[in-house]
Design brief:
This protein is mainly alpha-helical. The chain contains six helices and two strands. Helix 1 packs across helix 3. It starts with 12 loop residues before the first helix and ends with a helix. One of its GO terms (molecular function) is DNA binding. Keywords: DNA-binding, Transcription, Transcription regulation. This is GntR family transcriptional regulator.
């Protein structure tokens, strides 16, 4: 599990952590049943308060992303993730909307934006 907390990001650290873990689950980097790094170890690695990690894990458990396994710790949920996996668009929608708004503002046409997207997709 690779997590990077951006001190310049105005969003709370626990939210950054949640988003990164969710993205790794959706991408298949973290698979159902896989054990997550312990609260203490991850807090030490990221140099943040263990309560931040604990809050993140608890929220993700309540939302069905993770499950607590006695004697093991937190693992990626084995069931109930299918709907979340199909909702991958939610991770890029704000960025995509901002791109479209910016492109319109400076006068790009739809076809020009699509051409740029295709160019960068191939790179």
């Amino acid at each position: 599990m690779k997590i990077v907390i951006d001190p310049q990001d105005p969003s709370p650290k626990f939210k950054q952590l949640m988003t990164q873990i969710q993205r790794q689950i959706v991408a298949g980097t973290l698979i159902p049943g896989e054990k997550l790094t312990s609260v203490r170890k991850l807090a030490a690695e990221l140099n943040i308060n263990p309560m931040t990690i604990s809050r993140c894990y608890q929220n993700m458990e309540e939302e069905g992303w993770l499950e607590r396994k006695r004697g093991v710790g937190m693992i990626v949920a084995r069931q109930g993730l299918q709907g979340r996996m199909e909702d991958r668009f939610g991770f890029i929608e704000p960025t995509l909307k901002a791109l479209i708004d910016d492109a319109r503002e400076v006068g790009y046409s739809k076809s020009e934006v699509m051409a740029l997207v295709m160019q960068y997709w191939e790179d």
